[in-house]
Specification:
Distance between the termini: 36 Å
Shape: elongated
Pfam family, one: Phage_tail_terminator_9
Protein name: Phage neck terminator protein gp12-like domain-containing protein
CATH architecture: 2-Layer Sandwich
Radius of gyration: 22 Å
Order of helices and strands: EHEEEHHEEE
InterPro entries: Gp12-like
Helix content: 10-25%
Length: about 160
């Protein structure tokens, strides 16, 4: 039996899309701050898949192909943190651009759908070296996670009975 993931959310592509929307170099949109030396940047973003929950699923079987498929519709929350002086403005521009036609087209190609965004929150974090100004927002998307498995059908059944 072989189990294959046919469709899932690719976070590296989501980070590239966010960088493109904001006109930032891709290296300024990262998974987490510890991933790179951020001291050289006046502003940057971190983007992580913070949660997923299943809205519903459908299980189907193709006897001809001997293939079982599960389609799982999920709501995905992506946490975007912006750091730097223009962090609130960057996230505001990002949220506003999610509803534009070019963005909807790109998201359709990625097989994700934009649902909504949380409020944009201003955050100040105190690290050992300095105080860091930033903002945060949750972007909520719908995705269709598809997984398939080969299931060989039985051609015949042998029944064995035992007497007591």
């Amino acid at each position: 039996m072989t189990i294959t993931t046919v469709c899932q959310l690719d976070m590296s592509v989501v980070r590239q899309l966010i960088a493109q929307v904001l006109g930032l170099p891709v290296e300024r949109v990262m998974e987490n701050k510890s991933q790179a030396d951020t001291s050289q940047y006046d502003h940057f973003l971190t983007v992580i898949n913070s949660s997923q929950f299943e809205i519903g699923s459908q299980l189907s079987y193709s006897g001809e192909d001997e293939l079982e498929t599960i389609n799982s519709l999920r709501e995905v929350t992506i946490l975007v943190n912006a750091y730097g002086d223009n962090s609130m403005l960057m996230l505001s521009n990002l949220v506003n651009s999610m509803q534009l036609a070019p963005m909807r087209l790109k998201m359709r190609q990625l097989r994700i759908g934009y649902l909504r965004a949380s409020e944009i929150k201003h955050v100040i974090s105190d690290s050992a070296e300095e105080q860091e100004v930033g903002a945060t927002v949750d972007l909520i998307f719908s995705i269709n996670h598809i997984t398939q498995a080969n299931v060989n059908r039985g051609e015949s059944v042998k029944i064995i009975t035992k007497e007591n």
